[in-house]
Amino acid sequence: MHRIGKFFGWLVAGLLILVLLVPVLLYIPLVQDFAVGLAARKVSEATGMQISVGKLRLSYPLRLSVEDVEVIQADRDTMLTASRASVRVELMPLLRKEIEVRDIALDTAFYQMGNADSLMWLRANVDKGRIDAVDLGFSFDRIDLSRADIDGVRVRLRMLPDTTDVPSDTAAAAPMAITAGLINLSRVDFGMEMRPTIDSLACFVETASLRDALIDMGARRISGRSLAIDSVTAAYFYPAVTAEPRPADTADTAEPPTPESEMWTVTAETVRLTARSALYAQTGTTPASGFDPSYIGVSDVRIEVDSLYNRGTALRVPLRTLDARERCGLQLHADGLFAMDSEEMKASDFNIETLRSIVRLDALMGMGDLAADNSVPLTLKANGRIDPSDILLAFPDFRSMLAPLKPLSLSADIDGTAGQLNVYSMRMDMPSVLRLYATGTVDHPFSPEKRGGSLTLDGWLNAGSDTQFAM
After folding, report:
1. How deeply is 418 buried, as exposed, middle or buried, from its count of CB atoms within 10 A (0-12, 13-18, 19+)?
2. Whose C-alpha in 47, 240, 401, 435 is 20 to 30 A from the C-alpha of 419?
């Protein structure tokens, strides 16, 4: 009995030592190489994917690093590669059912989804990524990120039209909240095709940063303290519009409005964007001299917005500044408040300036069909000065007509509806050329067959000789 007891004692001790040695063995490089090779082969056999890992290292207590990772689906539609990736997890928070990641690092990563024949084809490269201090719940209902720095991002996306009816997903998604203290992006190169809407979209961003961001999927809310995007170069080409006959049995079907409970709210305290150049053009267009609406190019762009708000159709854009130079030579500055909702859109204290011209306005327009709905409200209070030299930059073909003209001063005070506009005052004055003052009403201004009204005109016109008139 003594020998049997001694034997079982050694057996239990041996098992305890073995149990204690297993975790220790996992930190031995030779064991790690054997384990990762075996695991990769077994997973490849079970899934049909091609999986390979050049090197895996686990350091005490929980720092995992891998090199030369490659995961390829059997059909080669999806693949993931990385030259190096590492993650360090804190041990003690795991006992509290919390996942606390000290840092994540990624070098030379590549991801592809789809292929040349797919409806959606995506390729993404990242040169270097670093993420610090990430906290996650075990249920993955929240992600708290302290800082992320990502450099050298290249994305190519192509989407083709899909006529297949996709059943709607009625399953309720688990709500998740994501917070981020600071996200920095640098050298972002994005390219996209989405025919027949977009022939090509190319955008390069030198730097971008987002501070104090929140994405709350349960509350359907996205917010950020500041978003700064600097040194953008972008080009958007759209296909030529072709007039195609519409089938006789085709009818417009308006989608039902989004329920209030499903609307997302987007807010940002400050938004800033600078761009070296941006182009919006029709594919194959040879730009005309001056301003060409089918080939709009701007440079030296600067946009600043305070307290941006959007929810459904409601949009509020307090524009602190918008500066740009158009291809034709016009330098533009604008500031003021633009707001809209399901009932109206309006501009308040809005200024539009060029080097020699300025227009200040407060305007309101209700939502609706101006030609069919006589109750749509309209308001305009404006004054300004327009210099012919600015018009000449945009339309150089009118040089002979515009060159002799002087700056035009104007003002207007108009309100009413699409059925009847009240012209309290409207004034235009160009020295030595014309002076016009008008008051009265205009009925159905947007319906040519019904248009009428009563206007009182006073002023004079110089058409080679002074002509005075009053009506």
Report:
1. buried
2. 435
